[in-house]
# Entry
Amino acid sequence: MTLNAVTATTSAIIDLNQFRNHLQGAAGNLEAYFLRMSTGTNFRIQLGDASGANDFRIEDAGNVRVGGIDSDGNADFAGTLTLTGDAFLAAGLVVGHTAQITEPLTSEMQILGTGQSDSSVFIGRWGDNPSPAGLHFIKSRDPVIFDGTYAIVSNNDLIGAIEWLPDDGVDLSTTAARYFAEVDDASPAPDDIGMAHVWEQMPGGGGGGLAETMRLAAGGDLSLSRGSVLVNVTGKTVEAVNQTNTGVHSLLGGAGNVSVADNETFTFTTQDGCLLMVIDDDNGFAGLFFIAFSSVVAVVSDPGSDFDGTDVDNAKIAVFKSTSNNTVSIKNYTNATRALRILVVGPVDSATAPS
# Structure
């Protein structure tokens, strides 16, 4: 390798003393010299001066800048930067853009772009095994990062969240939808922490702000919120719909059925009347009923004599309501557990699981 100090004329440096003398001016100040390196491919390095007017820069054989560091410590590289060791960043990392965005906060890691490729993230894993790639969220109540001590989380702590923030024409700070995992455990313990999955979203159309619409609790219970109706599903299949939904509703069992014990009652409310079909899969019969707000239940069809339109314990399945309210009750009086499905044609306000 040949090391030259490049000034008006180029002369070879014989030893380190001459190299030092070439870098110092008459007053002993550091001058702006280029050091030309030759190892088969020429490039040269400019050393910064004391005033900071010239930065540290690296140029290729054609004297074109390929990288450098300015007097403020900002670095740039025109090619690929390959690191073989760990990299520790005390400030932000931005991919695809020249600056961080600051709404709704200034995240230290950002991927920003105008196309799919420069605004996407892939997490991949290759190998002849069933193991997946992973995205892992960690939450600790320890105030110091990974210092060898641990502080267990508490009930209702949020462990990880994903948020969606559309541009609303004013700023980028509107959280329109959010999904998160939350501690659902009054007494979390080592290797034993109950978790709930929670979905929140805005209804749009001026219908209000961000609100919870679905929750899967640690015990497996599913809560669905539609409008002002919140129904807990605890081992039974129940649908809750807004009263303006006038479609066909499978309130109990859906494509399958639900076992309803003797003397258990299932209820739902309707506003304007409906047609109701109760299917008893144990004997293969179905009953068809007409429900009106101001009248009792009318039995339209009962081919197996398996049903009754009044609240009477006569070893049948009773379908009944009063004339003063809109709550319909289905009660099992058969002295045995029955496998039931319930279909409603018309508006349904709310529904409860059998109990």
User: Anything to note?
Assistant: The chain has a mean pLDDT of 80. Residues 16-23 form the longest helix (8 residues).
